[in-house]
Write a structure and sequence with these properties.
Elements (H helix, E strand, L loop, with lengths): L2 H10 L3 E9 L11 E10 L3 H20 L3 E4 L2 E4 L5 E4 H9 L8 H10 L10 H13 L6 E4 L11 E2 L2 E5 L1 E6 L2 E8 L4 H16 L10 H8 L5 E7 L1 H7 L17
Parallel strand pairs: 5-6
Antiparallel strand pairs: 1-2, 2-11, 3-4, 6-9, 7-8, 9-10, 10-11
Length: about 260
């Protein structure tokens, strides 16, 4: 993943960078996810997540028309029109409207009861915010999109800046298409002290059993100490094309991971 070296280039004075390359994630596989895949990632100095929303909306519309010859496609039971006005999905509001739970006024026990009622599997050792994330993933599947998810709790991603109007939330957006997240972008945190404190919180979450907590990245903190300009970062994988074709991702990559013959 080219995140760190691209941010070092921003520190060095480059205002726009990008990378298209292979990624590996040591997690499970599904019809949407592979362990080995290709991703495009870019950084844009002196821009924020709202600038990124305008840019990526234009980009996704252009990519869809280039691939399909139209802006409308079927995917996972939804009809998606990329040229229509995109929805804005607020993380807190969507969960409250769908489940009745206010994530900032609830308890871990209440969320577990709700997940149990949905027959959602979860590790009972994970912390409060990972349970909130599972609740979001349950309600997300009913959102057709195209749209932008905003207002995510800062605990679920330590790397964005905080929203000025609500410091509990990240200056972040994720693209929602056919009930899934299809691209992630945010206003980059460029305060090394704040980031170091967040990494410490993530380490505590990891030690309590949260396998998705972010690793402490000492090199990144050191790079920020030299001074990174305000910036927006965004990434999307080839899973987007699998959704455009309405096919499992394994059928949409040139060299999918294969099981060895016995």
């Amino acid at each position: 993943m080219g995140e760190l070296w691209q941010k070092k280039l921003l520190v060095a004075g480059f205002e726009k960078t990008f990378e298209i390359g292979r990624q590996f994630r040591n997690e499970g596989m599904s019809s949407e996810h592979l362990q080995d895949y290709t991703q495009m990632e870019f950084y844009w100095a002196y821009a924020d997540y709202k600038d990124g929303m305008k840019l990526t909306q234009e980009m996704y519309r252009e990519v869809t028309r280039a691939v399909l010859g139209t802006s409308v496609f079927e995917c996972r039971g939804f009809e998606v029109d990329m040229d229509k006005e995109w929805e804005i999905y607020d993380f807190e509001s969507v969960i409250k409207n769908k489940t009745g739970i206010n994530i900032y006024e609830t308890t871990e026990s209440e969320i577990k009861q709700k997940l149990d009622s949905y027959n959602m599997e979860y590790d009972p050792k994970v912390g409060f915010w990972r349970l909130v994330d599972l609740l979001w993933k349950y309600v997300r599947k009913d959102l057709s999109g195209p749209g932008f998810l905003v207002g995510q709790p800062i605990e679920l991603n330590p790397l964005p800046k905080r929203l000025k109007e609500d410091s509990r939330k990240a200056a972040q957006m994720q693209i929602i298409i056919a009930g899934s997240e299809m691209g992630n972008g945010y206003t980059e945190l460029n305060d090394p002290i704040d980031l170091e404190n967040r990494f410490k919180e993530q380490r505590a979450m990891s030690e309590s059993g949260d396998e998705e907590a972010h690793n402490y990245d000492e090199d990144f903190v050191e790079a920020l100490r030299y001074g990174m300009p305000p910036a927006y970062g965004f990434g999307v994988s080839e899973r987007l094309f699998a959704f455009l074709m309405n096919r499992p991702i394994r059928e949409c990559v040139i060299f999918p991971l294969m099981k060895p013959k016995d």
